[in-house]
Amino acid sequence: MDERRCLAVLGILGLLSPLVTASIIAQTSTQPLDRQENPLNLAGMLDPSVGARGGTTTYWSEGFKTRVYIVPDYNVPDPEAHYYWIGSHLANGYWIQVGYLTAHERPRGAWFYCYLPPAGGDYVVRKGPDGSAGPTYTYMYYSAIHVGDGYWSFVKGGDEYLGTEFFDVDSTGYHAPASIAEKGGEYGGWLKPVYFNPAISYKPRGSSYFRQAEQGYAYREPTDNCNQNYDIVRLGFNYIQVGQYTNPTCDYGDGEKIWG
Amino acid sequence: MGRSSLLLLTAASISLLALGLWIQYPFGSASPEATKAPPTIPPEDIPETPISLMTTSVEGLPSVVRQGEAVSFVIKVYCFKPECDFRPEITLTRLRDLPPPEGLTPGKFPGPLEVNLSAEAPVEGEALELVAGEGDSAIRLAIRPSPAFTLKEGEVKVLNATLEVGQAVAPGRYRINVIMRGALSKPGTLIETYDFEVVPGQG
Prior knowledge:
The complex is a heterodimer of chains A (260) and B (203). Chain A is 11% helix and 39% strand. Chain A is mainly beta and 260 residues long.
């Protein structure tokens, strides 16, 4: 009797396991890469952004960089702009960022960098011409690096200097760089998901080399923007895809660890 | 069904289940739940990037211009606010060749990337004319009509520009900067840059 019951249990398990397996495989094969874009009208909302911040090991760095996928977007309503960038506060409170933007009539893929002095100064945004972001559907490096005496250079690729500015400081201090996809203005556009891989690298103080961020933490602004379809998809160590998705899974809330 | 067949079916199914689990969580990796950890980095306010409410685009400016050559192109000006006062400062700079940043000596500033060319005060009127250098070494930029006007929201104005590069202008990379104050959605300055390279002329 016991033996029969045991066999019956094993039989049920045996019958169920292919179903479980099939479900797991199906789940694995429908990871977020397959999600389709589906524009929604979100006019009137705040400018949202989503991405990853480095951990405390990236503090006090003398440079940071990201490798971001260049996607063209011909459906950005004016005057909305979509930005994909890496940025950080510096030790003295300056805010700096570098990456690329897409817009409708104007640059459909142009590099840009931006800085904001501490204590409520005025923004300076500098941008290149249409098509200057880099070849579409390829990755491009964007970096900001301290080049000496308080000057920082913004660089595209390995050696294309976009500009050099004086910030009078040599490191980021107690600040971590962040790689972000951001919608500038809210006029109903859809923030195309892009890859950041590696999302965040930093140049430790005194080092000549960049190092990959050991940890990455989710960044969401506003913090509940998953409701507006913004999401962060972890594709590997220091490898994410961020933007707006039809069916966000909201795996990573603001501040939650993504890797490391 | 015999007992051995049932056992065989059970063993096969459990193997399949194990295979499925292995595909989902390969050896050495943890499940998503296990990799999540409580936040350990303090939150930080990241400023919103301002958008351009007045902007330009350039069509027809070649990336390479020969010494002694003159090229024509157009500058389009766009306005995305009720009224745009377009009175940019336009500058010409020369770009220095710098070593890749990772090849720099740490802490030793290699000098500025851009060197301002001493341009004469722009001549305004029906056209803006900007001249850097003298004689055969001059770069001359003329824009018609003069970029000093007001636009309404949604309006696009087309300007005709001519760039003349003297026969003795030093080969290298040059940059036209269009500097606009009040063009952003937040207080600040927008600088739009258009680069070209001067190469030796034919003959």
